[in-house]
Amino acid sequence: MNTENPRGSLVHPAVPGSRRLTVQAMWSIPRVGGPVPSPDGTSLVVPVTTYCLEGNDKSTRLWLVPTAGGDARPLTAETSSAGNPVWSPDGTRLAFTRKPAGDDAKPQLFVLPLDGGEPEQLTDMPLGVIDAKWLPNGSGLIVAAELVKGHLTVEATKTELARRKEDKVNVHATEDRVYRFWDSWLTGGEVPHLFHLDPASGEMRDLTPESVAWFSFMEPADQFDVSPDGTEVTYAATVVDEELDEIVGQVFRLSLDGGTPECLTADAPASCARPRYSPDGSSIVYGRKEDRYFYADRWRLYRFDRATGEHSPWCIDWDQSPSEWSFAADGRLVFAAEADGRSHVYTLPGDASEPTLLASGGTVGSPVPVADGSVVFRMETLQSPPELFRVAGDSVERITSFTAEALADVAIGEVRDLRVTGAEGESVQSFVILPPEHDDTQPGPFVNMVHGGPHGIFGDGFHWRWNAQVVASWGYVVATPNFQGSTSWGNDFAQRIQGAWGDRPYRDVMAVTDALVESGLVDGDRMAAAGGSYGGYMMSWIAGHTDRFQCIVNHAGVWNTLAQACASDVTQGRAKSYGGDPWSGLDKIDEYNPARFSRDMVTPMLVIHGEKDYRVPVTLGLECYGLLKSKGVPARLLYYPDENHWILKPCNSVRWYDEVQEWLKRWLNQT
Question: Which architecture does CATH list for 407-666?
Answer without folding.
Answer: 3-Layer(aba) Sandwich (3.40)
